[in-house]
Design brief:
The chain has seven helices and 15 strands. By secondary structure, the chain is of the alpha/beta class. It folds into two domains: 124 residues, Rossmann fold; 97 residues, OB fold (Dihydrolipoamide Acetyltransferase, E2P) (Beta Barrel), CATH 2.40.50. A five-stranded parallel β-sheet has the order 2-1-3-4-5. The longest helix has 18 residues.
Length: 234
């Protein structure tokens, strides 16, 4: 599903980050960028968009005041450096609350929520994590698209994670907890405090060791063994 959006943000660096993230997603189109909420309201009086990326601290009119009078049909993702307004914002049907600085993966999560809401309202089957087939990995100043089914396993490496595919390895700034929540739990399962494995890539299980299709070997942690056995050998 394709989405249209606008940015309401008065800080140039934040605008640039949002524009970059939006341009990296093929299914979302940026219609306009505004440095204050009043100009954004004028635009919305004559145009329709699916989504608004909205800062809270804006000149002339705050983001919270904007939420109270904006058209109800527009979904909103707040982008702010302050967490103080998180609870209040959800009274105005804000879809997500992104605390700056936020990662590209966190941005994609928020946008995916908007897709789910719109799809559900249109009467179609809502998108679920089971249907996510691709993911973007930040590499330097670029974002590399990976097919999720190509991932063999994910290894925690301090503040980072390593995504191991059959032909190469990618480094991600997201922690292992993020991938546990993001990936399809029918295909991926945590087998160790440092490892998340793709169940479809396992060729053999022997004792407390897992052997993958490329002959790599991973440990099964004692805490995770029962859950893994129930999931894999069901």
């Amino acid at each position: 599903m394709n989405l249209t959006c606008i940015i309401v943000e008065d800080q140039a660096p934040a605008q640039r980050i949002l524009k970059k993230y939006i341009s990296d997603l093929e299914f979302i189109e940026l219609k306009a960028t505004f440095s204050n909420a009043t100009k954004a309201l004028d635009f919305l009086n004559s145009a329709e968009v699916d989504l608004i990326f909205l800062d809270i601290h804006l000149p002339k009119m705050s983001g919270m005041d904007f939420l109270k009078i904006k058209p109800k049909s527009n979904h909103v993702i707040l982008t702010t450096a302050y967490s103080d307004y998180a609870l209040e914002s959800y009274e105005y049907n804000v879809v997500d609350y992104l605390l700056k600085p936020f990662s590209f993966q966190r941005f994609v999560q928020a946008v995916s929520k908007v897709q789910e809401l719109i799809t559900f309202k249109q009467g179609s089957h809502p998108i679920s994590r089971n249907e996510v087939t691709e993911v973007f990995i930040k590499s330097g100043y670029d974002h590399i698209k990976l097919v999720i089914d190509d991932i063999l396993f994910i290894k925690s490496d301090g503040d980072y994670t390593e995504l191991h595919c059959e032909k190469q390895k990618h480094l991600s700034s997201e922690p292992l907890k993020f991938w546990i929540n993001f990936l399809n739990t029918n295909h991926f399962i945590q087998i160790h405090k440092s490892f998340l494995v793709n169940l479809t890539k396992i060729s053999k299980v022997s004792g407390n060791r897992i052997f993958l299709v490329d002959n790599q070997e991973l440990p099964i942690g004692r805490v995770y063994k029962d859950t893994f056995t129930e999931k894999f050998l069901k």
